[in-house]
Amino acid sequence: MAFNICIKISADEACYMDIQKIEKEYQQSFKTAVSFLYSHPNFPVTLGLNGVVLSWLKKNHPEAIEVFRELISRKQIEFLGGGYYSPVFPLLFPVDRSGQIEKYTTTLKDCIGKRPNGISIFYDIWDPSLITTFQSCGMEYLILDSTLIPSNKSSYLPLIVSEQGKSLKVISSCKNLLPAQGETPEEYINRLKSLEKNNSSQIAVISFTFSDFIKFIKSDIGKYIASLLDKQNESDVNFTLPGLYIKNAVNFIRSYIPAGMNYDAAQWAKKAFVKSENKSRFPFTIHDYLNTYTENKKLCDKMMFISMLISQCHGGDKLRRNAASNKLWEAQSGFNFLNIPSGSPAIAEQRQNAYKALNEAEKLIRDCKNTSFHESFTSFDYNTDGLNEYVFQMEKLNAVINRKGGIVEEFDSMVSLANYAASLSRIENFDGSRDLYNRGLFIEHLLDDSEFQTYLQDKKTTSQVFSQTLFEEKKLETKRFFLLLEGKGNYSSLKTPVSLRKSFTVTSSGFMVQYILKNESPLSLKGNFVSELNFTQTNFSLADSEQQYSLELIEKSGTKKGTVQDCCCLNKEDVSNILIKDKKNGLSFVIEPNEECSFSSDVIDFVRPTDDDQTVRKTSRTLVASLYWNVDLGPGMEMEKNINLSVISVKKNKK
């Protein structure tokens, strides 16, 4: 029996991340590959394109679709199914899994007139629960990376896996079968022949991008294989299509494939932004990955929340509800979570694009109901950490408050559709400093004079008083949109007990935050109380030297200081009002303390590895705005401070 090889081609990852790059890919490699296939009718190939690329081809290059139809009629090519937006399937509710698959299947059938019966998944992020969904959507087989196959199973034997009475066949995609550098055609074919054992019908998939496929067919090995197929010579290596193989195969090895992910991504899952081997008995999963990268986990939490809102929306405008589902599916794209092909986390720009799509989905859901939108305040375990978070859905903003630190960890404007609280935290190896807390809005610090001077210089503190405190819920009034939290800690090396009562009253366009700091010790307490707000970069079309935010300060005397273009290392005393302008998105944030404060601001740049060789580059920045007051409290005494934050829409000037 011959060893069976299936060649799979997919678009370069740049096409999925930037629609403008598809034309370049089409002209440089896609068109050449399709022309080659058309002129070599005995060269079988399996294609894996997501719905974005397929729809773009239909609109911009219908001639390519016509060629596909011709190749399909020859039974020379086969299309794989999948999610329309290349989602991370294990993170989706079943309704979204099947919805994405059916949307792509409908698009494919409309283009080439045939439904797929096999599927490939984004970055081989697998979970056994997918079996029932795939089978119910008409998928007979799955192509999966060989590194996920249990070591006691041959990578070259067709497997069958089952879940809840549903089954799915599995064919391995093997990187080790790619031609080696310097390998001759004869050596390569002999290497494939040597894999045939026990007279059983073995099979493997070799995956290429279109650009790599062009290099392959232009190589000596590619030319040699093409000549063999053109002459239809019998060989111990049979090039075929996976669907054709599955149709005729009768022997499958029963197996169980645990949850896992492609090796390239798994090596990033153990420690943040450090590639490392997995020496445990268990494979890393996408959930391990999310637990390592909190910024990805927060995006996933938002995605699940919007999916829940859509599923609970009954009646109303069906067109708007369907449009909301489509925006949700767009945000579920795996490219918003991972960089391909390195496997490192997606950059901040991709996550902000996803937040924008999710907020658009929520706006559509609000509009599709027959009744007007009602603002709401709910408490539930939003981020699945075992503790309740506080979720506000207001007319102009959405917010999520976390008990850890009592911070606003998500702050979505329903005008710009951006999440302004999605700031990164610094990592020593890349940013030259390490943050011990998650950045967001309304983070508090109590610092002695030496710590405070360090904080003013680079917004760094080792103190964990309040910023890492788990606050306790003291009062919650959903009708008033009022939340009262209390946190306790020990201040300075003397371990002086202190407490902070922190209340939020959320309005349609902002927050009113009240602080009551109390000295719980029999000794006097002196220090500096800081309220920190972090506004992340949400616009990524700016030049490297251009700032998204500008500041205007009003001093105690009422004097307006004017616009401050450079927000770095700014320190002012006796400030009564702060205006932060986001000119690109047409918003202004007005910060009003109830009494004069001192003010400090800085801009933090974050650099992260984005390539397989771990080359770092600037991926995001955050404006840190800190309000602070001197503290001098006797035993048992309190001090009270209030801050109002209002979000104002500003009309953009038309050019």
Automatic annotation (TrEMBL):
Question: Which part of the chain is the Glycoside hydrolase family 57 N-terminal domain?
Answer: 21-240
InterPro entries linked to this entry: A-amylase/a-glucTrfase_C, Gal_mutarotase_sf_dom, GH-type_carb-bd, GH57_Enzymes, Glyco_hydro/deAcase_b/a-brl, Glyco_hydro_57_N
GO terms classed as biological process = carbohydrate metabolic process
Keywords from UniProt, A to Z, are: Carbohydrate metabolism
Q: Which domain of life is it from?
A: Bacteria
Annotated ranges, domain Alpha-amylase/4-alpha-glucanotransferase C-terminal:
435-599
Record PANTHER family:
ALPHA-AMYLASE-RELATED, ALPHA-AMYLASE-RELATED-RELATED
In Swiss-Prot or TrEMBL terms, this protein is called DUF1926 domain-containing protein
The organism of origin for this protein: Treponema rectale
